[in-house]
């Protein structure tokens, strides 16, 4: 992969993306609420959040597709709301819904976007060949895109988005509905691009994918609730240590565990209960003994490292709690 | 504006048209069918109108007149009535479109050199057909009276030469009937092109919204004007093929005399095509669903063209306010141009006024259509 066009690249001084107090309202509904962050050149920034969190809304604002209700966003040093056209020439975008032309072949789609982005004619053939190779579609140049499998479609869409070598890429759930092997290949491509200095902003539902990002931003109900490297997020999200508890009657065990000494939080996690405690080494045996005393067989608690999902559940839960208490406080005021 | 982008869009759009042969077939067959249906709709109405005759005299002259009616292509003798009541019944039941009542003193008045009057009763529920039928009845009677006068003059020893004006008058009457079709078919060409042209482009933007391809397209640096020109170019080619079909049918099938030049026709038709394609595009930009866009485009072109272009209802007979409204109907200028090109062989110079009006119209719609497209999802 060649580095992004120097003329279109951001200066290294300014961050590739700078967002400040970004808010988007649809009528009375606030989809995005005072979001601020910055991303540097070559950074892979992941947006993680449940359905309807506002990930797509944020990306659309940064692409100049939606006008922010309040706040400011700069992409490649340019104010998106004021100069959306200047931003559009410097970004690549993969929308959440597949949006290449199904009734056109692989190369016809690539030629179209090369023309739209005014890729120099002399370089066109080379860049299209690169995109085809990158997507692993060699030999299928003339296949209609509608007939491609999901993983290939997504890689082709990525190929189309980088034909003009944008310094900033926005990928909205690029791997949803794609098999694990294709997802892995896709993330390799993202890292290659990042290595070439392209800033990549990618949203996802998959917790494991968050680990591939340099930094992640957790979004829930339009608010940015956490921002940091995967390690930072996992460390700071839990106040305490984590135990995985296996036993016979999970339904009966959960309230018992929640009420036990030193337990800060407990939630069902598949066939286990994940328990946040003040001190894992001490509380593990205590919990085992407690459940055995109450007649629940086979209780074993073992300390585990928190996963992104644990952090996510914990952070989203706290954010919801905060929102509820602040709403109550507001309601209690005369 | 970049030529490069226009080219990319035009190529992509053309590929999509070619990849969808069913829609392309429809785009070419519909105008053909509409021309035939509308064309014959007009022509069939005024042929073989069922005629009921109440001949109070039943003499040589009156039977001659009835025979003339029966021999013309416009009337078919359906019934010989015996009484006024029977006549009323025939009209009421829709059995006959016109009834002819010949007085008992018909021959006598005619031979006395005075005026003989026959009464024509018409079914007025379809006023258009009734008017046309009345016109034909007049022309048959006129032909008959011309022949009768000629007869009378010759019997008195006059020469044919001195009486030619009567003969001329009879022929003019008959030509008028023929001309009405010649006037109407160019109007139908305009109507069909307006409908089909707007339909062609009415889906082009809505389709991209529905398929989700528009979201990506608006995130690119493409400009509204580039998008519009690129998208219209391939449809312009299809529209020209449609125009060729319509105009070809008018000349070779309906045999409307063509006195103009193909160049004038091509130029003015291109202008009109630009207008209707842009109207369809404007609708497509404003309405993001394909079904909605198609229906609005149909209404927006068919209604004003049918009612206000002057092809079916003469503009001079409309109330002043409605007449003013016709200036906003692009087909009005094209109908005027087509009639003049076909029947009078008019060229660009004679048609300067309607051509300029159409060009102005095209410019306004182009700008409106390009501006209506907003590169945002808001
Ligand atoms: N144009 C719009 N008009 C009104 N509401 C909207 C609009 N676009 C989005 N929303 C609402 O804003 C909220 C955030 O939507 P958004 O698509 O940004 O979420 P998301 O995080 O991308 O969700 P998903 O993971 O399902 O894609 C949702 O509740 C959605 O219903
Ligand atoms: Mg989304």
What does this structure look like?
- Chain A starts with 16 loop residues before the first strand and ends with a helix.
- Chain A has helices spanning 55-62, 84-88, 106-116, 121-134, 150-161, 180-195, 207-210, 230-237, 250-258, 280-293, 308-332, and strands at residues 17-26, 29-39, 44-48, 70-75, 78-79, 91-94, 168-172, 199-204, 215-220, 223-228, 241-246, 263-269, 272-277, 300-304.
- Chain A is built from 11 helices and 14 strands.
- Chain A has 2 domains: 3-234, P-loop containing nucleotide triphosphate hydrolases (Rossmann fold); 239-305, Alpha-Beta Plaits.
- In chain A, helix 3 (106-116) crosses helix 4 (121-134).
- In chain A, strands 6-7-8-3-9-10 form a 6-stranded mixed beta sheet, with helices on both faces. In chain A, strands 2-1-4-5 form a 4-stranded antiparallel beta sheet.
- Chain B folds into 2 domains: 3-43 and 180-372, no CATH class; 49-155, abc type-2 transporter like fold (3-Layer(aba) Sandwich).
- Chain B has a 4-stranded mixed beta sheet with strand order 2-1-3-4, sandwiched between helices.
- In chain B, strand 1 (49-55), helix 3 and strand 2 (75-80) form a beta-alpha-beta unit.
- The interface between A and B is medium-sized, with 31 and 28 residues.
- The complex binds adenosine-5'-triphosphate and magnesium ion.
- Adenosine-5'-triphosphate is lined by residues 26, 29, 31, 49, 51-57, 96 of chain A.
């Amino acid at each position: 992969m060649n580095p992004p066009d120097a003329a279109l690249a951001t200066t290294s001084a300014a961050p590739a993306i700078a967002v400040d107090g970004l808010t988007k309202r649809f009528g009375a509904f606030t989809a995005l609420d005072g979001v601020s962050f910055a991303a540097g050149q070559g950074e892979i920034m992941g947006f993680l959040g449940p359905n309807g969190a506002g990930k797509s809304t944020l990306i659309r604002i940064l692409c100049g597709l939606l006008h922010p209700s309040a706040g400011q966003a700069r992409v490649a040093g340019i104010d998106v709301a004021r100069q959306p056209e200047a931003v559009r020439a410097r970004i690549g975008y993969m929308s959440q819904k597949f949006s290449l032309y199904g009734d056109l072949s692989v190369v016809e789609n690539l030629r179209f976007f090369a023309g739209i982005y005014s890729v120099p004619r002399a370089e066109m053939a080379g860049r299209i060949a690169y995109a085809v190779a990158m997507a692993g579609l060699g030999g299928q140049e003339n296949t209609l895109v509608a007939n491609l499998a999901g993983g290939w479609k997504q890689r082709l869409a990525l190929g189309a988005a980088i034909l003009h070598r944008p310094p900033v890429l926005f990928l909205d759930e690029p791997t949803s509905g794609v098999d694990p092997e294709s997802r892995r290949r896709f993330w390799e491509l993202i890292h290659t691009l990042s290595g070439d200095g392209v800033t990549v902003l990618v949203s996802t539902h998959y917790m494991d994918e968050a680990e591939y990002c340099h930094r992640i931003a957790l979004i829930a109900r339009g608010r940015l609730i956490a921002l940091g490297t995967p390690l930072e997020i996992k460390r700071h999200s839990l106040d305490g240590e984590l135990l995985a508890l296996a036993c016979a009657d999970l339904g009966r065990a959960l309230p018992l565990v929640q009420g036990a000494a030193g337990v800060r939080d407990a939630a069902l996690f598949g066939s286990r209960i994940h328990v946040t405690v003040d001190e894992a080494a001490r509380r593990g045996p205590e919990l085992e003994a407690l459940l055995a005393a109450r007649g629940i067989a086979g209780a074993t608690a073992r300390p585990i490292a928190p996963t992104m999902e644990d952090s996510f559940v914990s952070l989203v839960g706290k954010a919801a709690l905060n929102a509820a208490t602040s709403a109550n406080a507001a309601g209690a005021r005369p | 504006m970049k030529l490069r982008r226009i080219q990319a869009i035009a190529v992509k759009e053309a590929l999509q048209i070619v990849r969808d042969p069913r829609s392309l077939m429809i785009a070419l067959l519909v105008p053909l069918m509409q021309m035939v249906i509308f064309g014959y709709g007009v022509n069939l109405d005024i042929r073989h109108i069922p005629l009921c005759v109440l001949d109070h005299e039943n003499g040589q002259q009156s039977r001659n007149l009835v025979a003339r009616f029966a021999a013309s292509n416009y009337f078919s003798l359906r019934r010989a009535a015996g009484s006024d009541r029977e006549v009323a019944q025939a009209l009421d039941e829709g059995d006959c479109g016109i009834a002819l009542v010949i007085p008992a003193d018909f021959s006598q008045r005619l031979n006395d050199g005075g005026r003989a009057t026959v009464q024509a009763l018409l079914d007025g529920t379809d006023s258009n057909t009734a008017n046309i039928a009345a016109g034909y009845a007049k022309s048959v009677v006129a032909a008959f009276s011309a022949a009768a006068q000629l007869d009378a003059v010759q019997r008195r020893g006059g020469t044919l030469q001195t009486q030619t004006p009567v003969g001329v008058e009879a022929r003019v009457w008959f030509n008028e009937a023929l001309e009405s079709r010649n006037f109407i078919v160019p109007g139908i060409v305009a109507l069909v092109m307006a409908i089909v042209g707007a339909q062609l482009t009415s889906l082009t933007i809505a389709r991209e919204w529905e398929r989700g391809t528009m979201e990506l397209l608006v995130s690119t640096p493409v400009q509204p004007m580039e998008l519009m020109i690129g998208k219209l170019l391939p449809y312009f080619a299809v529209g020209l093929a449609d125009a060729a079909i319509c105009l070809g049918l008018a000349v070779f099938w309906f045999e409307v005399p063509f006195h103009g030049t193909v160049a004038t026709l091509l130029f003015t038709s291109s202008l009109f095509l630009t207008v209707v394609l842009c109207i369809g595009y404007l609708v497509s930009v404003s309405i993001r669903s394909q079904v909605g866009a198609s229906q609005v485009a149909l209404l927006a072109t068919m209604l004003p063209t049918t009612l206000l272009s002057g092809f079916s209802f003469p503009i001079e007979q409309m109330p002043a306010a409605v007449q003013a409204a016709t200036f906003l109907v692009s087909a009005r200028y094209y109908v005027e141009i087509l009639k003049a090109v076909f029947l009078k062989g008019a060229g660009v110079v004679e048609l300067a006024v309607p051509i300029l009006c159409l060009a102005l119209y095209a410019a306004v719609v182009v700008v409106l259509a390009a501006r209506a497209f907003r590169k945002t999802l808001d």
